[in-house]
Amino acid sequence: MDYYKTLGAKKDFTPAQIKKTYRKLALKYHPDKNKDDKEAEAKFKEISQAYAVLSDPEKKKQYDRYGSTDFHQRYSQEDIFRGFDLNDILRQFGVGGAGSSANFRSNMGGNGRFNSFFSQGNGGGCGGGGCRTAPEKGQDMTYQITVGLDEVLNGAERTITLRKNGNSHNVSVKIPKGIEEGKKLRLQGKGGGSKNGGPPGDLYLKVEIATNDAFSRKGDDLVVQKLISFSEACFGTKMEVETLEGKKFMIKVAPGTVHDSRLRIRGYGLPVGPLGERGDLYVKIGVKVPKELTDDQKIVVEQLQASGL
After folding, report:
1. φ, ψ for residue 35, nearest 5 deg
2. What is the pTM of this model?
């Protein structure tokens, strides 16, 4: 759904202009003025969702930045309507709350106050005299999860144990391929419980990438360090390199290779997202210098020094 198109608004509209366009459409499609009109009902839901995002500065900023598709991957409908009091907004426009029509229903999202405006008048919604506050969602929770490079490469499914309210809970989580440091995995309904019977909050697992002794990560590429002697740097050599998944390659180090040179093995890095191609594996060449020399080695090095090498 294109929220700007839904409201007939533009990105540079001021908050007052966005509110004005929504008011005009809300008056037109309000359910009390369109009894048993499913199309009007659907339209009212759409414009209300668009207004919930575009009237909120932070949500509007995220929507403008990421676009509709990516925005909806980051924001659930519960997130969209959190803090959005439709009944209060409609009263400002001089119309009744959305729940005043007994036949008007909605499954728009998890925000309790918003749902109450779109529910039947069976005691949980808004009537002519006001609106009861529906049960609110429980608190969201955030934990840190450490992920190995092999799990970044292949994806994984893990069971982790969490402590909530003094009790241990096992939670299953899928780790997608290509997950990056700092990303959050959202487990809907696995957060804190509601105090008054509402839905539980969500659990967010913040990803930390574990240190690997052999490989370091640079974006979607991997880097492995290999040391060669001074003579190998001068004359060249061959060496075996093992990838993260255990495949082995023989690579050639050219004569005259300098310290911190890099050789690339294409396609043996990490996935670019769950469905993307893989980055590259870089072999970082270091020229090792011995801390101590034997007497014979000292003579040879002195000769090299004298020759200008």
Report:
1. -60, 130
2. 0.55
